[in-house]
């Protein structure tokens, strides 16, 4: 088990010694290490059991710091950063040589983001280096949104989890890159497409790529929980399912015993916040399958539906 607490000095000491610390962000918990140290970055890949072709996001306290690690910031990227940082937005920008190739899996861009969480902002401001941090889960599994989720899966491999409570957004950052300075969304996430388009106009969506993905988070069966998820009309699925089933619904109460309702009041933000914890909870229930449905495809609902589809893909 790892120690769980709010001791920033302890986190600073560990990180300075190339050790890893789990950190809270507004989206999900990250498994953080010194982004400029090959030793620390190698530990991140090994603790997560993550293939080295899957690049890491680099976390900075503000846009000024980001400039130290990237060659250029396209106009649209600057507009987005000005408006949404700190916040659930990762920008793919041309990297400077100071960012090790290991971090970007050899790509010439680096995913960079300024998280919105007071403990982590304080930590980033005290450190003389940025933090590489993927979600703090074993590769391919659901991201953690509470310190206990990290402890259950990685607690025997890291020493310290910085406790920032439950992540308020609950779903990973939206990833935006640029091709010929034109914005492309590679991962739907905690910043809605509507908010992005209201700021920089229509953007291209490239979130599905089953062969040779640009971001492995694009792989169809990623973010997979332990239980088999079946996506459709819960009402119909309940009548034809013959094995012991749980229900994950958006708003409706289906009056079955193993059931989680994402948002009784029908808010996608509320649903996003508890989605990953719900998926984890089913893993501990005595059921064979989870019957679930898509949520309204707007705002954070798009990111939720993306994760549900991937979790249900076999
Ligand atoms: O909300 C988040 O983004 C969380 C918190 C901890 O910040 N982090 C996170 O990291 O979700 P991770 O590693 O689980 O997912 C990052 C995704 C991966 O699918 C990776 O392939 C993609 O970002 N990525 C990172 N750098 C990239 C790059 N230069 N080009 C393309 N994709 C990149
Ligand atoms: Mg991840």
Task: Tell me about this structure.
With 314 residues, the chain is α/β, with parallel strands linked by helices. Helices cover 31% and strands 19% of the residues. The chain has helices at 8-16, 38-48, 63-66, 75-84, 101-104, 118-126, 147-154, 193-200, 234-240, 268-283, 301-312; strands at 3-5, 21-23, 30-34, 57-59, 89-94, 109-113, 131-132, 160-162, 174-179, 182-187, 204-205, 228-231, 245-249, 259-261, 289-292. Helix 8 (193-200) links the parallel strand 10 (182-187) and strand 11 (204-205). The two termini are 32 Å apart. It binds threonylcarbamoyladenylate and magnesium ion. Threonylcarbamoyladenylate binds next to strand 5 and strand 6.
Element-by-element helix/strand order: EHEEHEHHEHEHEHEEEHEEHEEHEH
How is the largest sheet built, in terms of strand order? Answer: 1-8-2-3-7-4-6-5-9-10-11
Q: What form results from the Cα inertia axes? A: globular
User: How many separate helices?
Assistant: 11
The whole-number mean of residue pLDDT values reads 95
Strand content: 15-25%
Rg value:
19 Å
Helix content: 25-40%
Measured between the Cα atoms of the first and last residue, the distance is: 32 Å
């Amino acid at each position: 088990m790892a120690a769980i607490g709010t001791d920033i000095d302890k986190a600073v000491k560990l990180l300075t010694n190339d050790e890893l610390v789990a950190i809270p962000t507004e989206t999900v918990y990250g498994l953080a290490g010194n982004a400029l140290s090959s030793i620390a970055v190698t530990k991140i890949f090994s603790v997560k059991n993550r293939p080295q072709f899957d690049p890491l996001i680099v976390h900075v306290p503000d846009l000024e710091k980001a400039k130290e690690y990237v060659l250029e910031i396209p106009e649209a990227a600057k507009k987005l950063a000005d408006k949404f940082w700190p916040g659930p937005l990762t920008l793919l920008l041309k990297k400077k040589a100071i960012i090790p190739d290991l971090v970007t899996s050899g790509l010439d861009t680096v995913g960079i983001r300024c998280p919105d969480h007071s403990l982590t902002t304080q930590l980033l401001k005290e450190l003389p280096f940025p933090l590489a941090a993927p979600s703090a889960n074993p590769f391919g599994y659901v991201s953690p949104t509470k310190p206990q989720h990290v402890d259950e899966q990685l607690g025997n491999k890291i020493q310290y989890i910085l406790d920032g409570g439950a992540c308020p957004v609950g779903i990973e950052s939206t990833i935006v890159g640029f091709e010929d300075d034109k914005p492309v969304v590679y991962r739907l996430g905690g910043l809605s497409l509507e908010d992005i388009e209201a700021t920089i106009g229509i953007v291209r969506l490239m979130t599905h790529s089953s062969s040779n993905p640009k971001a492995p988070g694009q792989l169809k069966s990623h973010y997979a929980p332990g239980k088999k998820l079946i996506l459709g009309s819960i009402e119909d699925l309940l009548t034809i399912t013959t094995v012991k089933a749980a229900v994950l619904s958006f708003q409706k109460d289906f009056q079955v015993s193993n059931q989680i309702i994402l948002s009784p009041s029908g808010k996608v933000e509320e649903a996003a916040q508890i989605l990953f914890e719900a998926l984890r909870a089913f893993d501990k229930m005595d059921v064979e399958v989870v019957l679930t449905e898509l949520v309204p495809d707007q705002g954070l609902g798009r990111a939720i539906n993306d994760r549900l589809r991937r979790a249900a893909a076999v």
